Amino acid sequence: MHPFSYVRAESVTAALQAAAGNPGAKFIAGGTNLIDLMKEDVARPAELIDITRLPLADIEENDEGGIRVGALVTNSRLAYDGRIGARYPLLSKAILAGASAQLRNMASTGGNLLQRTRCYYFYDVATPCNKRDPGTGCSAIDGVNRIHAILGASEHCIATHPSDMCVALAALDAQVRVTGPDGERTIPVTGFHRLPGDTPHVDTVLAPGELITAIDLPARGFAGHHAYVKVRDRASFAFALVSVAAALELDGDTIVDARLALGGVAHKPWRDPEAEASMRGRKATEETYGEAAKLALRGARGYGYNNFKIGLARRAIVRAMTTAAATS
Amino acid sequence: MNDLTPPSRIHPSTALAAADVPVSLTINGGVRTLSIAPWTTLLDLLREHLDLTGTKKGCDHGQCGACTVLVDGVRIKSCLSLAVMKHGAQITTIEGLAKDGAPHPMQQAFMDQDAFQCGYCTPGQICSAIGLLNEGRANNAAEIRELMSGNICRCGAYPNIVAAIQQARAQMQEEGAEVGSAVQSTQSTTGGTQGSRGEDR
To answer: Is the ipTM, as predicted for this complex, more than 0.90?
Structure first.
C-alpha cells in the first residue's frame, strides 16, 4: 500500500470538512473493497477519512412508511434484521447471496453501493484500463471477457457492477440519501450508478466530497411474490455471472405490477421499464416472462467469452419470475 | 561523514514515522497500546508487531479466510482491516481461545474430528466457526457449509470441519453456554455492531 494519512471523523460535519477540497481523500467504512484495491495499487488515496464512528448505523421507520437504513449498517445486520426479512425479503436474500459471512460482517450499506468492478483488467495494473487509467484503452473488449457486460457497455469499458444488494435495491426503487458541501439530496438507486460511455472511470453520480448517509426503502416491499436468482461458478462466495431480482404483485394469476432488475450484466443494476410494463395486466405464465426477457435483452450483445450470458440471462429471468409468482 | 543520511538509505518505516497513529486495542484480554503506521492491517499488527503468529496470512485479499479473527465477538477478515480503525475494540485470536490450559470446545472438536491436514487454514476456520456459533445460525450441515464459505481449506477437510462445528455446537449447548458467549469478549462493552443481533430475530 502507498502511504496515506489517516483521519478519524467524529461527526458527519467533521467528515465533510475533512473531505472538502481534498480530492486525494477517500471515506472508509468496512474497507473490504477499498483496502484490497489499495493493496493492488489500483486505489492510491492520499488520505483516508474513517467514518465508522459516525452515527449512521440505525435501521428505523422513515416518514414514508418505509425503512431508512443507515449507511454504516453492516450487510449482515441488514440482511438478518427482522423488519427487513419480513417486509423486504428480496433485499435480505440478495445480500446473503453475496460475499462471505466475514465480509458481510464488515461491509457497510453505503460501501456496497460504491464497490468497484471485479474486471480482471481493472485489477491488473500491468494492463490498459480506461476505468483505472482513463485513455489507456479497454483490455477486456478483445480479452478474456467471460464475466463482462452484455447490456449498456461502450467501446471504452465493458465492466459490470458486482453488487447483489444493489440489484434488489434497484428493483425496490430505493433511494440513496447523501450529504455534501452543497447540502443534502436524494438519488434513486436506479440513477445512482452510471453507464460507462466515454468516462468509465466515473462509477456513480456522487459529487466530490459527498457522503452517503442512508438508504430509504419505500413502503412497498413486494414481500408477497419475490425471488433473487443468482447464477455463478460455484455455490457460494462468488460474483454473479447473471443475477435477477424479481418481484410481482398478483391478482389471482393476473400480473398487477412487476419489477425486474438484472445484476452481473451491466455497469449498473439493470432495469428495463418496457419489459416490466409488458407483464402488467397479463397472465403470470412462462410465455409472459419469456417475452419480458426478450424485451429486457433486446439490446444485449456479447464480446466473445460472455456470449453465453444472453441466453443465461433470458432463462434466469423466466426462472426468477416463475419462482416469484410461486413464492408467498 | 556528516549527519545527513541520503534519502535512499532511509528505511520507509523510519521516513514515515511521523505519520504513526496511536492505537489501543484489547487483544485476548490484554490491553495493547502502540503507535503504528495507518496502513498496517490488523493481520500485520498481530503477526509482525505483536508476534501473535497463530493468525495466518493466506491470500491477503479477503478471499481465503485464514486471517479470520473475532472483533467484539464478530468474525472478520483481519487482512482487510486497518488496525487504526479498530481502536478500542476487543480482538480475539486463536491464541486467546484456550481457558485454564484447556482447549476451547471448538479447538477440541477440530482435533476429535480430524478437521485438518496441513493446519494452515485451521486458526481461521476455528475463529470463523466460533463467530458462526455467536451468530446463532449453524443449525444444520447445509447452513454450516454456506456460512463457512469464506474459509477455504485446500486440503479439502470440509466434511470433517462441518462435523467438528456440529460437535462443538452440540457440546456447548449441552453445557448451557449462550451462543453469544462462545467467546468471552463477546460480552465486552465496546459495542460491536453485531453483538446484539439476537434482538432482530
So the answer is: yes
Partner-chain residue, chosen from B19, B82, B128, that has the shortest CB–CB distance to A31: B82
CATH code of B105-185, in short, is: 1.10.150.120
Q: For the domain B19-95, what is the CATH superfamily, name and number?
A: Beta-grasp domain (3.10.20.30)
CATH code of domain A5-52: 3.30.43.10
Q: Which residues of A9-45 are buried (b: 16+ CB within 10 A; e: fewer)?
A: beeeebbbbbbeebeebbbbbbbbbbbbbbbeebbeb
Phi, psi of B126 (to 5 degrees): -70, -45
Tell me, yes or no, if B65 comes closer than 8 A to chain A by beta carbon: yes
Q: Give the CB-side neighbour count of residue A195, counting CA atoms within 13 A.
A: 12
Contact between A101 and B75 using a beta-carbon 8 Å cutoff: yes
- CA–CA gap between residue A146 and residue A140 (Å, rounded): 9
Tens of pLDDT, residue by residue over A181-227, are 999 999 999 999 999 999 999 999 999 999 999 999 999 999 999 99
User: Helix (H, G, I), strand (E, B), or coil: what is residue B13?
Assistant: helix
CATH architecture, domain defined by A225-326 = 2-Layer Sandwich (3.30)
Task: Look up the pTM and report it.
Answer: 0.93
What is the C-alpha separation between A262 and A206, in angstroms, rounded? Answer: 22
pLDDT in tens, B23-44: 999 999 999 999 999 999 999 9
Chain A contact set for B21 (CB, 8 A): 6
